[in-house]
Amino acid sequence: MMTVEEQIFQNSIQQPNHIALIAGDEQVTYAQLWERCLLAATNVRQKFNLQKGDRVILAAAANIDFIYAYFGIHLAGGVCVPIDPDTNETRFGHIFTSTQPVCVMGTLHKVECTTVPFNELLTECNETLPFVQPDPEQLGDMLFTTGTTGVPKGVALNIKNLAAAALNINTFIKNTEEDIELLALPVSHSFGLGRVRCVLTKGGTLVLLGTFANIKKFFSEMERCHVTGFGMVPASWGYIKKMSGKYIGKFADQLKYIEIGSSFMPIEDKKLLCELLPNTRINMHYGLTEASRSAFMEFHSEYDRLDTAGKASPKVEVAIFDANGKKLGVNEEGEVCVKGDHVTCSYWNETPERFAKDFFDGYFRTGDCGYLDADGYIHLKSRIKEMINVGGKKVSPMEVEDILNTIPGIEDSACIAIPDPEGVLGEVVKAFIVCKDNELTDAEIINQLRPKLEVYKLPVAIERISEIPKTASGKVQRLKLKK
Amino acid sequence: MDTLEKIIEIVASTCEVEKSEVTESSMVGDFPAWDSVGHLTILSNVEEAFDISFEPEEMMEIEDVKDIVEAVNAKL
Lengths: 483, 76
Known about the structure:
The structure holds two protein chains of two kinds. By secondary structure, chain A is of the alpha/beta class. Chain A has helices at 4-14, 30-48, 64-75, 89-99, 159-173, 190-202, 215-224, 234-244, 267-276, 352-356, 397-404, 442-449, 478-481; strands at residues 19-23, 26-29, 55-59, 79-83, 103-106, 139-144, 154-158, 180-183, 205-208, 229-232, 257-260, 281-288, 291-298, 311-312, 317-321, 334-339, 346-347, 359-360, 363-372, 378-383, 388-390, 393-395, 410-419, 427-435, 461-464. Chain A folds into two domains: 4-378, 3-Layer(aba) Sandwich (Rossmann fold), CATH 3.40.50; 387-481, 2-Layer Sandwich (GMP Synthetase, Chain A, domain 3). A nine-stranded mixed beta sheet of chain A has the order 2-1-9-8-10-11-12-13-14, sandwiched between helices. In chain A, strands 15, 16, 18, 19 and 20 form a five-stranded antiparallel beta sheet that branches. In chain A, helix 1 packs across helix 2. The termini of chain A are far apart. Chain B is mainly α. Helices cover 54% and strands 0% of the residues of chain B. Chain B has four helices and no strands. In chain B, helix 1 (3-15) packs antiparallel against helix 2 (36-50) and helix 1 crosses helix 4. The two termini of chain B are 14 Å apart. Chain A binds chain B through residues 85-86, 109-110, 210-217, 219, 236, 239, 241-245, 247, 467, and chain B through 27-29, 32, 34-40, 55-57, 59-63, 67.
């Protein structure tokens, strides 16, 4: 398997004048991209004495210079630690202390820290480093999880993991060098950064936008650059829909593909996308930072399975295990586990013995609960640790949320366990809802839930909040609601 | 208070910046807090302050303070 860097190098030879990157008025060809990545590699070695395995924190924003720095650091043997430019002081302190970087690059908005601008790596040198294929086992990226479980955890991905993920994704989505992708996702996260690798390994063109916030620009760039695809999380679609209604349908003949990130997406939204974009390949993935895009589904061709998380991605195996590590059969509920070259090689600063506990028989334990049906489709039920135990009966918060979200007036919801106020059942369900309908009473909500849920699954408390806390990739942070 | 002044006040308070930092040409992304959530909050606060309601086709044309002023004035 060729590394991501080797594939970009090959593209620079085979199609040197093809446009790799567009940002505003600036366009960069594959030949220029490669030359500047080598220049960045040379500079990071010379200026920061970067040695193999050294870490560099990148306050990652979707700009061209970031892309050179990212690949340049890999070429120089370093490890990229991409973080959100809005990272707060506590989180940054943790990441900094834990990784001991040779430098911090980019711009941080909420932290006082000396940083190096990305373009510092583009200083002209007399001689650039020759291209040396990165060692597949060398660490390439370290992504700190957003803390759904508390302390940020450094997920280490080696060069092989990164190449494997890109290959699996491109195989499923069927990307080609003719693709022109609009990147509005944050590049500090697995999904957005993964899109960069996918497009550039295939020799396509990446249009850097960085955010969906400016919807006018999103559509004008789509038109100006003849964009053929983009990635988004379900929350992005919620935003696009609110801000522009069905306008995206005007691009039905232009958009070849969309990739959607893994978090809850109402079936109605999936069907609406199918209706608006009848000829677009709409791919939704299931995955996590540790095992990027482990499963996929395509909305049109798998229209009757929209309620599932799809099937194992190409070259990935998915299996269900019980708590004792026994592999379960069809329709048996347990922990979703995945196997493949894309699976994280380690957690930063963790012993191999501890890391081994995250696996059952070579399969990585995702922490998600679900089952596989006879056709191999994954049915997700819940995060295991978020299961609500009502008098010994397990309640999946996602199940209650899915029904809450269908009630007219409720825009979003999240359920957690609270101690039973009656002191009988141990835990009971509490629902947090984002509700625009002031007339909708708690009693009415319960009345609507009652026919669809067992009594023990009904929320005993309902609280109205303005927004459900989510990670940048759109996963509900239920632990935050427990505070 | 005229429309522009009121909108600048809303943008400044939502983005947690001084009013003096916001101008007619300030746009989405100019302040860290003016992201998609910030943008929705600004538009919803504007709707409430002027007792108006934006349609999606109006919202998708808004990217800066000037656009908000024009959208509001068109409805008053």
